[in-house]
Amino acid sequence: MQTFRWGILGLGSIARKFVADLAHVPGAVLHVVASRDLAKARAFAADFGAAHAVGSYEALTAVPDLDVVYIATPHSEHHAHALLCLRAGLAVLCEKPFTVNAGQAQELITVSQAQGVFLMEAFWTRFFPAVAHALALLKSSTIGEVKHLVADFGGFMPYEPLGRLFNPNLAGGSLLDIGVYPLFLSQLFLGRPTAVAAVAVPAGTGVDLSCAVSLAYAGGATASLASTLAAPLDNQCVLYGTGGQLRLLGPMYAPHGVRVQPLGQAAQDFSYPPPGDGYHYEAAHVQECLAQRLHESPLLPLSSSLELMRLLDTVRQRMGLRYPGEGGG
Ligand SMILES: NC(=O)c1ccc[n+]([C@@H]2O[C@H](COP(=O)([O-])OP(=O)(O)OC[C@H]3O[C@@H](n4cnc5c(N)ncnc54)[C@H](OP(=O)(O)O)[C@@H]3O)[C@@H](O)[C@H]2O)c1
Predict the structure, then answer these.
(1) What are the pLDDT digits (tens) for 156-186?
(2) Which alpha helices (DSSP H) does the chain contain, by range?
(3) Which CATH superfamily does the domain covering 4-125 fall into?
(4) pTM of the prediction?
(5) Ligand 1: which residues within 6 Å by Cβ?
(6) Could you tell me the distance, in angstroms and rounded to a whole number, from the CA of residue 78 to the centre of ligand 1?
C-alpha cells in the first residue's frame, strides 16, 4: 500500500480532531507536527505518535520525506502559512475559509500552479457520502426543480474579544467561521447567485456576531442562509423542489444521511454514519489526488474555492465588514 506522510501546521483544536481521524485513512502516516511552541509540539507528537515534532512552522518545511501539510491555523494566517509550504514545494490541504479574501486565494492558486504542487481547501463537508448522494438525487430530479434552499449554522460562543472567533485581527466573525458552510452548500447545490443581499449584527469587536444572507439564482431559485455566534441554530440544510423536499440529516456541515420526500410519498432516509468525526473523507481524497499526481481536486477544484471566497467578499461588502489590512476602513 502506498503511504503518505502528513505534516500538521498549527496544533489547536481542529488539528487534534483531524489527526485522530487520520487513523481511519489507509496509508496515512503522521510524520511531523509543528507548533510555535516546541514543548506543545512534543506533547502533541507523543499523544498521536508523530515521528517528528518541531517548534516553528518554518522548521516543518525542512523536514525530509513530507508528502502533504494540513494547515490548521486561524483564518488570518492561512494565506501566509499556505504560501510558506507551497513555496517549499509541499502539497497543501488548508482549513476553511480558504483565506480571508479572494485576492489572497488567487495568490495561493497562482503559486500552487507555478510550483506544480497540490493545493486544496479543507472543506470536509464536500467529501461526505451523504453529500454525494444528495447531489445524485438532485441530478436525477427526485424532487423536481429546486426553488428554495434553507441552511443555517449557529452556536452560543462566549464573548472573548481576543479569541479567534471575535478578534478582527484573526478575521473573526460568524460568517467566515461558520456562515461559510451554508454558503458553500448553496454554491454546491445551486451554483452562482445573480443577486446577493446580506445584513449583520456586530459583536463588540465589530466583526459579525450574526449574519443573514438572501440569494437569488437565474434558474428561479432563492436561498436563505444564516450564521450566528449568539445562539444554537438547527444547523440544517433543506432543499425545496417543485416535486418534493431533500434534507441533509445531522449537522449540515457533517451530514450522516439524506432524507428525501417526493410530493405525496413517504420520506425515505439513507444513512452513512462515519467511523470518526468524518475528517478522514477529505484526507483520503487528498491521498487519492496525490497518488494520481493531481495538482487540484476534481471534486473541490480551486476555481470553486476562489468563487466561494468571492461570494464571501460580496457578503462582507453588503454587511460593511472589512478586516485590518484590507483598506477602506
Ligand atoms: N473543518 C472543521 O470542522 C473546522 C472546525 C474548527 C475549526 N476549523 C478551522 O480551523 C482553523 C483553526 O481553528 P481551531 O478551532 O483549531 O483554532 P485554535 O484551537 O485556536 O487553534 C489554532 C492554532 O493555530 C496556531 N496559530 C498560529 N498563529 C496563531 C495566532 N496568531 N493566534 C492563534 N493561534 C495561532 C496555534 O497553534 P500553535 O500554538 O501550535 O502554533 C493554534 O493552536 C480555523 O481557520 C477554523 O476555521 C475547521
Answers:
(1) 999 999 999 999 999 999 999 999 999 999 9
(2) 13-22, 38-48, 57-60, 75-87, 102-115, 129-139, 174, 180-190, 279-291, 302-319
(3) NAD(P)-binding Rossmann-like Domain (3.40.50.720)
(4) 0.98
(5) 10-15, 35-37, 40, 72-75, 77, 95-96, 122, 124, 164, 170, 177
(6) 10
